[in-house]
Amino acid sequence: MTNSIVEKDPLDLLGILPRRVVIVDDEKAVLSALEHAFHDLGVKDVMTFGDGMSASRIIASGAAIDAFIIDWRLPDLGGIALLNRIRSNAAFDRTPVLILSGFLDKRDFQLAAEFPLLALVEKPSHANYVFKKLGDLFRERDFFDAEAQNLGVEIQGFVPRANFIDDRWEILRSRLRQAPRPAPVYFIAIRLLRGRGLENMAEILLQDLVVLDPDCAPALIELGRKKIAAGNLPAATKLLRRAEALAPRNMERLCLLGETQIRSLRSTDAKDTFTDAATIDPKDDRVINGLRIATNMERHMGVIDLAKMQGSLASMLNAIGVVMVREGKIEEGVGHYTSALRYADNDSDWIKLGFNLGLAYMRWQKPVDAAAWFKRAWDRSKGSFFKAKRYFDQTVVEVRRLGLKVEEHSKVATKGEDEVSKRAPSNRPDLARRVASPISTFDAIDVVESGSKLPPPEFPQDHYAWDKIRKVLRTVQIPDPDLFAKTGTLALKSDHVAYGGLIGELSICVLIPKSVSANQVPHMEESEARASGVKALRSRRKVWALMWPTEE
């Protein structure tokens, strides 16, 4: 570090003033020094954490964050685990991350090279050096944003033909090959192509990238994912192993490899892989569930008849669950079924596993939870699995006999469509999750159907709603006029512009009045956006609802 860096103005080094910065370090002196340095600079929102688990909560929330500064060696959840959690959250795929540590080895630099918008700083370092490295990342992000905007304009005009693609496609491929840092730019183009449904073209670019850089670990992992989807598990394993050798300790890659081994019925290998992943982040849901399934497979493969499984992984996992419950290991069986739901490849598999999870709860004398799972199996079958409906009706009678309160809507907590609550079940009236009779497919919300008017804004309050909206607007550069039809807001098309994108599993649409500059909105406070007439919606099972009200 040179004196010239120390003597420079911090704002010149940063380039922009971030709105919210998260700093994680178990050394109080480092936390305090950086916090004061950012406050002195004018950053109003500086969030500091002394341990990884506390910081992981803000990561899980998806709140808008302009930069992370994390220590590599933390006492509980280490920096490598935090980095994996940050990059596995779609809300932070473009958020700069600065790693602070006095202990960096070769593998750390390999991982840093794999992730864009990441830099390493060895301790101790002057605050201005931290600002310089962070400013470099902001400038790198701006470069990628500009590339995304340019690529988006090019790709918007592509017209795939029966046996060929027009000349602009070949010009794009040539330009990507000449990019100074090709991998991130390739992935921007791939994402944009997939967003337009041009999957074949995205596949061509992925193959181009692997030819250009055979040691590009992100490209190898993406190819591995494609092979898994195509059912080519040996090829997927080979690609993921190769990527792991190039840049180890990537949670996404380890968990994909473990999943591939489970699907190949190589339970011992899968157990070893998820055990390795547990040394990085033992509390990651994928690790917990993968390790549980691999362990149960290893223990029970010898007592089930694989010939009757018809090659279905879900059938085998279902049979293992049946054995566990019949042996009286009901609580373990419930955990097994909960994890097995992640490996359901279709509705039929999911319905079978979900229904048997309900049966396990019945044997555990937990009718509240049993009824909830029978109802989910019934809903998933679209009314064709009458056995689930019959069991649901029986358990609702039992719930009422026990004197538990029955509400109009189910409060079973879910994480996405196919995942379940990890809370321990209970039938105590003051703790039980309530069961409906009948239970609606949706929570009690007003929805926007295609062609209808906007309903009263009664969507449940979301503490981080505005942060999610800002993240979409900072990520998506090109308006999508088709969103008006999808969200049922055609009446607003004449005087609004629609932007949409994904935050985790949420699809969010933002309608901005043409009188307001779209570039201004991400920098507004929520009250300013409402007063400007900005409207935000999010989808739930392809039905759209207002995210928060507007003041019009």
What does this structure look like?
By secondary structure, the chain is α/β, with parallel strands linked by helices. Among the domains are: 3-141, 3-Layer(aba) Sandwich (Rossmann fold), CATH 3.40.50.2300; 465-548, no CATH class. The protein has helices at residues 3-7, 10-14, 28-41, 52-61, 79-88, 106-114, 127-156, 167-177, 182-195, 199-212, 217-230, 233-246, 251-263, 267-280, 285-300, 313-326, 330-340, 347-363, 367-380, 386-401, 465-475, 483-487, 526-531; strands spanning 20-24, 45-49, 67-71, 97-101, 118-122, 496-503, 506-513, 535-540, 543-548. The protein has a 5-stranded parallel β-sheet, sandwiched between helices. A 4-stranded antiparallel β-sheet has the order 6-7-8-9. A hairpin with a 2-residue loop joins strand 8 and strand 9 (543-548). Helix 9 packs antiparallel against helix 10 (199-212) and helix 15 (285-300) crosses helix 17 (330-340). The longest helix has 30 residues, at 127-156. 38% of the residues are buried. Residues 406-461 have low confidence and may be disordered.
